């Protein structure tokens, strides 16, 4: 199986004998960045969540996102995790916390791709890129 991931969504690619399956899992994470020069007025400080609170909320959403991905990959023996940023490293750490799972995990840096490109990448990695006959 393969997973293309960033903090916005993940695409899980399953290589099957009868054809490949893909499943897109969107993230509910929205990192709120503070704009330079903006800040609460003198009486609005209590209406704006603290940086710690925002970070805790962000981390909680990511944990839920990673747990959902892990739940779809428990049956895989080997997993290719690829994508452009830090999310692939964070997902691998999430797998390592799951002591019951025994997976071979490989990570690669990859830029944005279309779903067909993702499937082709995973097929090529696992040497399933032989031409297929469509009936």
Salient structural properties:
3 helices, 33% helix
Describe the structure.
- This protein has 135 residues and is an alpha/beta fold.
- 33% of the residues lie in helices and 21% in strands.
- It has three helices and five strands.
- The chain has helices at 51-72, 87-97, 115-125, and strands at 2-5, 9-14, 21-26, 78-83, 104-109.
- Strands 3-2-1-4-5 form a five-stranded mixed β-sheet, with helices on both faces.
- Helix 2 (87-97) links the parallel strand 4 and strand 5.
- The longest helix has 22 residues, at 51-72.
| Proportion of residues in extended strands | 15-25%
- Rg result: 19 Å
Total of DSSP H or I helical runs spanning 4+ residues: 3
Strands ordered across the widest β-sheet: 3-2-1-4-5
Helix content: 25-40%
SSE order: EEEHEHEH
Q: Can you tell me the overall shape?
A: globular
Task: Give the low-pLDDT segments.
Answer: 32-37
Largest sheet: 5 strands, mixed
**Structural class category:** alpha/beta
- How far is it from the N-terminal to the C-terminal residue, by CA? 24 Å
**Mean pLDDT, rounded to whole units?**
80
Number of strands: 5
């Amino acid at each position: 199986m393969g997973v293309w991931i960033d903090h916005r969504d993940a695409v899980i690619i399953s290589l099957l004998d009868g054809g490949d399956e893909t499943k897109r899992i969107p993230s509910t994470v929205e990192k709120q960045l503070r704009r330079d020069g903006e800040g609460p007025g003198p009486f609005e400080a209590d209406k704006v969540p603290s940086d710690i609170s925002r970070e805790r909320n962000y981390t909680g959403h990511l944990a839920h996102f990673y747990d959902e991905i892990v739940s779809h990959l428990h049956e895989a023996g080997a997993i290719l995790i690829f994508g452009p940023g830090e999310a692939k490293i964070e997902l691998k750490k999430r797998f390592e916390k799951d002591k019951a799972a025994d997976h071979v995990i490989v990570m690669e840096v990859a830029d944005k791709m279309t779903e067909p490109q993702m499937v082709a990448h995973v097929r090529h990695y696992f040497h399933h890129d032989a031409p297929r006959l469509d009936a």
